[in-house]
Write a structure and sequence with these properties.
It is a single chain. With about 325 residues, this protein is of the alpha/beta class. The protein contains twelve helices and five strands. A five-stranded mixed beta sheet has the order 3-2-1-4-5, sandwiched between helices. Strand 4, helix 9 and strand 5 form a beta-alpha-beta unit. Helix 2 crosses helix 3 and helix 5 crosses helix 6. The protein is elongated.
Length: about 325
């Protein structure tokens, strides 16, 4: 294709740009064609021997990537392509170049990702699994008149969360931060069966915010015999003020606590991640009131459209305000 493009009058640079290859590749192909004709254009890698990156190679590479270099005896916490070449060679596989290792990683769909920090649950594994199974059974066996909701709080910062965005080559998105950070807090409850989100807003993350949510749920689900809340072990969920509020509600609301440091068991965590992705990441609101208008508009649209990324325009924000 390079030789044909040059034969039609294109320059080597233009042919390389159209084919997405290096200019030296086009120059080399044209030179071989002029010196030896069409036979010189045949793929000369046929005599390279057996292919090194085969299914066995990919299988071993997958097994190596499932653990860290320290697990395999190396004094380094993260993988590099060079280190992967050495580890696979140590396992008796053929020696490959760094570029070949990069292509092998691409064929597996492997990508460089940021690590996800977590706090280890102090409970034994069997006890944690049993508690999560009990909560799963709670969702499956409770009747419709006893709704099960996942509850959690989220911080809304005026200083934006900085994240990735699509940009043209040579450009980079600029986000101006207000400087003096401000905070608002939401307490929300996600109905597991219907997907409906109920939330309240406050200026502090104290027991009063959670109690406000309890009374709001009691009014919204006034026909429910009992409301089951799945939540974490935050102090506001077990404070003396919270216990008094639960007693005033006559036992209509029952709290079911997750194991410590198990956010993956709380389904509302996914809602807060979507909220940050759709509203707070790279936002350009200059005041907290502007940002909260967008937060409430997004959550209302999520309930109405039953979508994690509902379609919103500025007119929708004005109606919400």
């Amino acid at each position: 294709m390079a030789v044909a493009a040059v034969g039609r009058g294109a320059s080597c640079n233009a042919a390389a740009r159209d084919l997405g290859c290096a200019t030296s590749t086009v120059v080399s192909a044209v030179r071989r064609y002029r010196e030896a004709g069409r036979g010189a254009l045949r793929d000369r890698r046929e005599g390279n021997g057996q292919r090194k990156v085969d299914e066995r190679f990919r299988e071993r590479l997958t097994r190596v990537l499932q653990r860290t270099p320290e697990d395999w005896g190396w004094c380094r916490p993260t993988w590099t392509r060079e280190l992967l070449c050495l580890e696979l060679e140590r396992r008796g596989l053929p020696q490959v170049s760094v570029a070949t290792m990069g292509r092998a990683l691409t064929s597996l769909g492997a990508r460089r990702k940021a690590a996800r920090p977590i706090v280890q649950c102090p409970w034994p594994a069997w006890k944690r699994r049993r508690r999560l199974y009990e909560l799963k059974c709670l969702h499956a066996h409770k009747p419709p008149e006893e709704p099960v909701l996942h509850v959690d709080e989220v911080d809304i910062h005026l200083n934006p969360k900085v994240g990735h965005d699509w940009c043209l080559p040579g450009q980079r998105r600029v986000v101006v931060t207000p400087g003096n950070n401000q905070k608002r807090f939401l307490a929300g409850a996600l109905n597991v069966r219907t997907g409906k989100l109920t939330w309240v807003e406050g200026k502090s993350k104290a027991s009063d915010l959670f109690i406000q949510l309890l009374w709001h749920l009691a009014g919204e689900y006034r026909r429910a015999r009992r409301i089951h809340l799945v939540l974490d072990n935050a102090a506001v969920h077990t404070s003396q003020k919270t216990r008094k509020a639960l007693a005033q509600l006559g036992g209509r609301i029952v709290l079911h606590f997750l194991p410590p440091y198990c956010p993956q068991g709380n389904r509302i965590e996914r809602v807060w991640l979507d909220l940050h992705a759709n509203v707070t990441r790279n936002h350009r609101c200059r005041t907290m009131d502007q940002l909260m208008v967008r937060v409430h508009a997004y959550l209302a649209a999520r309930n109405a459209q039953r979508s994690a990324s509902p379609c919103l325009r500025r007119a929708d924000l004005r109606r919400t305000a």
